Amino acid sequence: MSTSTPPPLADAVASDSTLRRFLHGLPGVDPVGLEARAAALGTRSIKTTAKAYAIDLAISMIDLTTLEGADTAGKVRSLAAKALRPDPSDRTAPTTAAVCVYPDMAATARAALGDSDVKVASVATAFPAGRAALDVKLADVRSAIAAGADEIDMVIDRGAFLAGHYLKVYEEITAVRAECAGRARLKVIFETGELSTYDNIRRASWLGMLAGADFIKTSTGKVGTNATPANTLLMLEAVRDFRAATGVQIGVKPAGGIRTTKDAIKYLVLVGETAGPDWLDSHWFRFGASSLLNDLLMQRQKLRTGRYSGPDYVTVD
Question: Model's pTM, two decimal places?
Answer without folding.
Answer: 0.94
